[in-house]
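User: Fold both of these, please.

Assistant: Here is the first one.
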Amino acid sequence: MALLDNHDPKGLKHWNKEDIKAETKDILKEIAEYTKRLYAEGERSILVVLQGMDASGKDGLTRTLFGKSSPAWIDVHSFKKPSIEESAHDFLWRIHKCTPKKGMINVFNRSHYEDILVPSVYGLFDPETIESRYEKINQFEKYLESTGTKIIKFYMNLSYDKQEEKLLERINLREKHWKHSDNDWESRDNWNAFMKVYDTIFSRCNDIPWHIIPCDTNWAKLYSGAQILLKELKEINPQYGDMKTDKFMSNYSEK
């Protein structure tokens, strides 16, 4: 059974929208506090990986999840078709350059998993090349975690019907025209092929587990993502460091 079969894109049925939205406000405040501590401590980092079909709300989740945090503490990177320069290197070269430095939270809006998904669906590389990337990604993620970067992987679980609704909004609503891309509809035509590859990714690249986020409603999406992020931040439990003093401050404190 595919992993997504056990996850409703609308969220859990017992969730009450107004209660959830009120609870989410408190969670976001806590996230901002822990994010500040992480930056102040400057010893560890977090990489948030967002994967999902077009219109699943990756940009929206990033914006709202860190809406109360300082932009100085967050870096966001999006990975599309590799450039000529990027294609001249190994496929993880462009990814590694964007991993977070100590104290930071970096968000990957699409990630190294695109280098399995797109080539698999469109047959861009031979099967042996794609096959080798699964283990290379596992090794890469383990290496990052061994050096102090906590990886949190989200799959943005949007239903097929809801995606059509959101893609049509990009055509029918003028304020959303800028989001429209013909490529999104081409990807939609290959929905089942993408789901098949995702299912393989979930089973073979799960040493660092995937979190399935319901994305048919924005409030459920934000609540789910915020809950998981806060839990991980609390487990890291970053602390404010001691004040660093130089010669001037030492002399001043003696007066």
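And the second sequence with its predicted structure:
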Amino acid sequence: MKHITIKDVAKRLNCSVSTISRAFNDKYDIRKETRELILNTAREMGYSPNPMAKRLLKQCSNQIGVVVPEFINPFFPEVIIGIQEVFLKKGYQVLIMQSNESYNNELENVKAMENNMVDGLILSLSLETKNVEYYQNLIAQGFPLVLFNRVSNQLETHKVVIDDYKWAFFATEHLIYQGYKKIFHFSGPAGLTFTQNRKNGFIDAHRKHKLAIDQHTIIETGLMISDGEREMEKLIQNNNIPDAIFAVNDPTAIGAMKILKKNGLKIPGDVALVGFTESQLAQLVDPPLTSVAQPTKEIGRTAARLLLDQIESKGIFVPQTVVLNGRLNVRESSMKL
């Protein structure tokens, strides 16, 4: 089906393109009757304005881009719900893409968003993202960009995180207060900022209570259930089973839980578990998992408000890092029997 253009409407009415354009834009110098005739004719012909042309004219698209690493864990979808709450009320469309933990995919996603003329971007970096030069150039050009959860200290832009150090400290201290001595940490990938912060919280809780940490206490795993399963299998095979595990997130804790139960070990009788994220699975597994709750929707809403302010201020802003609070939800998986 042929796309009807402004030229087709002008040809049908035997008038100039400029007259049609003035009618569409409700200019003062066109008679009411003429405007109504033009609009009615355009409707009958099936004309609709070219959205790209409108964007170029307005120099904005009323579209926001969001790029996240993955959709497997519920954390990112919940953050996106918060982002949408803010922007949909303001008349923006939210375009969502995922990098699948690939830097190349992430970069292609960002470029696709640029080509689609989004007014700004909310981004959580992939596991592979080390080179942030492209984003530094975007920021230097005044392109509105907000980072959340997985951020880079090399980028001078708005960031939204939670206090990972503090809540990792409290989570570890909870296990210590329960009387556990041999506590392991399943840490995340080394390149992530929150991995280091949660690891530091774990270490400092041990220092405060004068508990020893050796090279085997902290185990770099990953972020998926399969990562927790793999590392727990290794510990059992090596007969190096801890009293308790503080995991970087819920999926790795749940992976460890599956293997412990498969091998006949009781939770928390033999090994206590604490996660981080407060996913819906934390309350569904047996026993329910102690976990640090992150305000996922508030992370999304905060990132959206920061981006909106930056867009409306035309790129003039002072970069800030907003640190949101968490909450330790204590459940059966970590309570000493």
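The first helix runs from residue 6 to 13.
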